[in-house]
Write a structure and sequence with these properties.
By secondary structure, the protein is an alpha/beta fold. It has 3 domains: 248 residues, P-loop containing nucleotide triphosphate hydrolases (Rossmann fold, 3-Layer(aba) Sandwich); 80 residues, no CATH class; 91 residues, Winged helix-like DNA-binding domain superfamily/Winged helix DNA-binding domain (Arc Repressor Mutant, subunit A). 46% of the residues lie in helices and 14% in strands. The protein contains 21 helices and 13 strands. The protein has an 11-stranded mixed sheet with strand order 2-1-11-10-9-3-8-7-4-6-5. A two-stranded antiparallel sheet has the order 12-13. α4 crosses α5, α13 runs parallel beside α15 and α16 packs parallel to α18.
Length: 489
């Protein structure tokens, strides 16, 4: 298979190639001010290599979704999914070698950064058998790997920078080849930029960025001025996948384009006279203002972990309908029998080893269907209570006495729903004197196949003071729950 693609041409018309096989091993850094043609360059590279290598695009502005109109890319709308769904989609992307565009334009800036960080981390943590070669393109990389803290929270900055560092520094052995594009080198974290061996530098005007670009290209600082004079769509290239000496490249044409016009061209102004324009602006203004004041405040995007997605809202509605339909029959069944049948449904579902890998909304819909099958009214069980009751069933909490169960639940009260089942299992086994669950047990409850995610889970629980982890020189791990003994006694 030919691994070289043409991205443009030199001044004399000679084609300039990029060796994709070499690029997978050496990564790429693209810089250019807004309007320099940076996104056009990325689009050209993606289009030309679409039939050669799997591609994943982190797209904060939704510019690259049109690749799906011409190629086999799948668009993932980050605003429509929960954290767990984003991580599952990332793992499946690697498993099935799908080329995808993660569109983040429906989220605010901090949510964009967190969504991308979770997606990249899941790509990095994918099981070894899924480590196929893939180009991972991150546009506006200064957002996801900032050189200094900004308006986002420190926690968001930390997880995003860690994800980007893993991509650029440690991703090669996992088949991940990072291509990062930024408007300003000075705003991009140096440890992320330093891992690239190939460079395409477009027009930039600030001295600090010109000097850094010249240094990366091996040019003398007095030559840095030429970077300011580059035309739109013209880049200086260097690197083992492009050329051994710096050369100017004019990027070639593309098939796809952004969803909407960039607004850089001129359009004729409206011909309406000022008086008519004034009437258009003020017509029914009071009614429009009143309508806006009556509108409900926009809800946060579905990516936020505690916000329901569309499928979750559907499941909630199904629960409401089930409750209404069951009201007439609920009195015919003793309360004890009803509760036992609900617990039986939950236990049956928890026994499925694949259950934890499904979304909460899918599990909830399965629960509702099982309740209908066993003629059990699901009245009073909404999505939130289902999450916690299902976690109890997964951890086998029906095997402990009421006092121990109450003590464990008291310790687990502040935990998030996705951490509940693993902690309950650890605490139950500790209370019963059965020792520590192995990684496979925890992974099944946590919905992952990544040992590193289990280690981070245990570290997180330990930082919160819920467990104490001890590991001997032979690698054997033991976990204790220090607050449990006092509560049980």
């Amino acid at each position: 298979m030919e691994s070289r693609v043409i991205i443009g041409e030199q001044h004399g018309g000679q084609p300039v190639h990029v060796d994709i096989e070499e690029l997978l091993a050496t990564r790429l850094l693209v810089q250019g001010n807004s309007g320099s043609g940076k996104s056009h360059l990325l689009r050209r590279l993606l289009e030309e290599s679409a039939g050669i290598v799997q591609q994943i695009v982190i797209d904060p502005e939704g510019d690259f979704v049109t690749l799906a109109d011409h190629f086999d890319h799948v668009v993932i709308d980050g605003a429509s999914h929960s954290v767990a769904e984003i991580e599952a989609l990332a793992t499946r992307t690697r498993q099935h070698r799908a080329s995808v565009v993660l569109s983040l334009d429906g989220l605010d800036v901090e949510q964009q950064i967190r969504c991308a960080a979770h997606f990249l981390t899941a790509l990095f943590d994918a099981p070894r058998e899924y480590w196929y070669p893939v180009l991972v393109v991150v546009d506006e990389a200064q957002m996801f790997a900032p050189a200094a803290g900004g308006e986002i929270s420190e926690d968001t900055r930390r997880i995003s920078l860690n994800a980007m560092t893993n991509l650029m520094c440690r991703g090669r052995k996992r088949g991940l080849a990072g291509i990062v594009a930024t408007q300003r080198l000075a705003k991009l974290a140096k440890n992320v930029a330093a891992e690239a061996s190939n460079f395409l530098m477009g027009r930039t005007f600030l001295d600090i960025d010109m000097i850094r670009a010249a240094d990366l290209l091996g040019m003398e600082r007095r030559q840095a001025e030429q970077i300011r004079d580059l035309d739109r769509g013209m880049f200086l290239g260097l690197g083992p996948a492009i050329t051994r000496v710096p050369l100017k490249v004019r990027i070639g044409g593309v098939k796809s384009g952004p969803r909407t016009s960039t607004g850089s061209g001129l359009l004729p102004l409206p011909s309406a006279p000022p008086a008519e324009m004034k009437d258009l602006l003020h017509a029914e203004l009071a009614e429009a203002a009143a309508a806006r004041s009556d509108m409900p405040a926009p809800a946060p995007a579905a990516f936020v972990a505690d916000q329901p997605s569309g499928s979750e809202r559907l499941a909630e509605r199904m629960a409401e309908l089930d409750a209404q339909a069951a009201d007439a029959d609920a009195s015919a069944l003793p309360a004890a029998d009803t509760g036992e049948r609900v617990e039986m449904v939950l236990r049956d579902m928890a026994a499925d080893p694949k259950a934890a890998f499904q979304t909460t909304s899918a599990l909830f819909q399965t629960f509702l269907m099982q309740c209908r099958q066993y003629q059990v009214p699901s009245s009073g069980i909404d999505m939130g209570s289902f999450r916690r009751r299902f976690a109890l069933a997964q951890a086998g909490m029906d095997r402990v006495d009421e006092g121990t169960r109450a003590a464990i639940l008291q310790l687990a009260a502040p935990l998030e729903d996705d951490l509940l089942a693993p902690f309950l299992l650890i605490a139950r086994l500790a209370a019963q004197g059965h020792g520590t669950p192995d990684e496979d047990q925890l992974a099944r409850l946590y919905g992952t196949s990544s040992p590193s995610r289990i280690r981070r889970l245990l570290e997180h629980l330990e930082k919160r003071g819920l467990i104490v982890v001890r590991e001997d020189y032979g690698g054997e791990r033991s976990v204790t729950v220090p607050g449990l003994a006092a509560l049980v006694d």
